[in-house]
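Q: How do we represent a protein-ligand complex in a form that can be generated token by token?
A: Start from the inputs.
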Amino acid sequence: MKKKTFTLGIFGGGQLGKFLVESANKLNIRTFVFTDSADSPAIYYCDDFIISSYKDKKKLDFFIKNIDLATFEFENIPFKTLDYVEKKINVSPNPSIIKTLQDRLKEKTFLNSIGIKTTKFYYLKKINKKKLDNNIFPALVKTIRLGYDGKGQVFFKNKIDFLKYSFKNKEYIIEKLINFKKEISIIISRDKSKSVSFDAFENLHKNQILQKSQVPANISAKLNVEAKKIAKKIADKLNYIGTMCVEFFITKDNKLLVNEIAPRVHNSGHLTINAHNVSQFENHIRAVCNLKLKKPNRFHRAIMYNILGNDIKKYRSKETTKNEFFYDYGKKEIKNKRKMGHLTKIF
Ligand code: ADP
Ligand code: MG
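Then emit the structure tokens for the protein with magnesium ion bound:
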């Protein structure tokens, strides 16, 4: 057996971490997971793990001593933690990117500054609510930080309802609700010199949580190329190393608007495990560990369904066919709307 020496540290131990670890295992790379939750799927697959607050400097120092380089599976790992580690050891993608993308206001401002279109938005702190542009409604108010799976979002049909609402002491943006035709995502992996991306995935959300993703997306070849170009522009401008995802709305008149950027592997790319020659996870590991990226090549059409909360119980006893791949994340606690597993069907 080839000796495993190089150790990759991974912050976060959720299902994204689990799939990253499995890809690293395949490439004979040792992994060390740092997670703040005992109920972390990745800990069963990695070589070592620490369960601790992300703020514990002693634990962080021990982690740093035992890894060659660090990455993360989730953008809401505290910036201070990643920055502390980056001062001593290489972190990919660079934590300064997280600082921009953890903050919806900075993220959209950055996108607009490089000529990429987003929904119309305002920073609530900086506007007179009573004078707010009526055209923004119907609108969504989103917390600037720490939102995922629709958490921290409130919908307002009109200004009257908006003015009645009392906001907590947090920072928010308000953005126009888009009556979109569809949602797609582009997953791109970039190393120091080059990038490769998957064709668009078509995504359907229910209650702001991804319900299913499919490939190929039912869009024109032109829109697919355009979306890939936008993703490449973002990755290049950020000098991004690793896999990232750009989520888009396609408007009724076939224009692309970027909804958000996930600086990590993404739920819409789970089907790459079964439908392609290389998964988004493997290319992330390759990019951060300085191994040659693999150009994605799709072998099958595929649909991925997320399995939330109690639904996992039904799937656990269900038979699967040879074209179906069921993944149970092995989370101990079943919570309403919690992502518990997924099923990919290939065609
Ligand atoms: P999260 O960080 O929780 O993923 P998103 O901003 O991506 O937040 O919102 C989740 C989903 O909610 C989107 O994929 C989309 O379906 C819906 N959504 C969010 N913002 C808008 C918007 N401005 N117009 C229409 N739908 C939206
Ligand atoms: Mg999103």
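Residues 119, 140, 147-151, 175-178, 183, 205, 208, 247, 259-260 surround adenosine-5'-diphosphate (ligand 1) (CB under 6 Å). The mean pLDDT is 95.
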